[in-house]
């Protein structure tokens, strides 16, 4: 293992290395909402697969998937507490009042 890798691992728990990138306070994403990261997928199956992979890696699934017909979404919180959304949307299926 290289010295810079040891530094990252050693300081990852207390945020010391990350703090060098900003003058802002580093929050605990397990206790505070920092942002929601939303990515689109090619299909409902792709959404489910990504959430399954995340859960297998230790992510927390806060809610079941939601199917709106024209849109399908599922979310997870990663090991650092960041909130991720995966969405599939059928542009032909968007209700007229939302288009």
Description:
The protein is α+β, with helices and mostly antiparallel strands and 99 residues long. Helices cover 27% and strands 21% of the residues. Strands 1-4-3-2 form a 4-stranded mixed β-sheet, with helices on one face.
Keywords:
99 residues, alpha+beta, 4-stranded mixed β-sheet, 3 helices, 4 strands, elongated
Secondary-structure topology with pairs:
Layout: H1 3-12, H2 16-19, E1 36-40, H3 44-56, E2 66-67, E3 71-77, E4 83-89
Parallel strand pairs: 1-4
Antiparallel strand pairs: 2-3, 3-4
Proportion of helical residues: 25-40%
Strand order of the largest sheet: 1-4-3-2
SSE order in H/E notation?
A: HHEHEEE
Mean pLDDT: 81
Residues in β-strands, percent: 15-25%
Question: What sort of overall outline do the alpha carbons produce when their principal axes are compared?
Answer: elongated
Number of strands: 4
| Radius of gyration, taken over Cα atoms and rounded to an integer in Å | 18 Å
- Give me the secondary-structure category: alpha+beta
Count, helices: 3
Concise description?
27% of the residues lie in helices and 21% in strands.
